[in-house]
Amino acid sequence: MSLHLFGSVITAEGVAANNRGETEGNITTLQKLLWKGNVHTTVSAEAIRWAVRYYWQLTIGENEVNRVWDDKKSDHKWNDPTWSGWLTDNGIKYIDDDLLGYMEAKAAQEDGEGSDENDNEKKKKKKKGTVIVRRGVFEITRAISLLPYAGDITFNAKSGEKGRTSLYGTEVHATRYQYGFALTPERLEKKERTIQAIDAILNLGEVAGNHSRFLYDFSPDSIILRVTDDPAPRLLFCFEQDEKGVITAGLLVKRIKAADIKPEELYIGGPISENEELRSIPNIKVYPGVKAAAADFIKEAKSRLNL
Question: In this structure, is residue 235 part of a structural domain?
Answer without folding.
Answer: yes
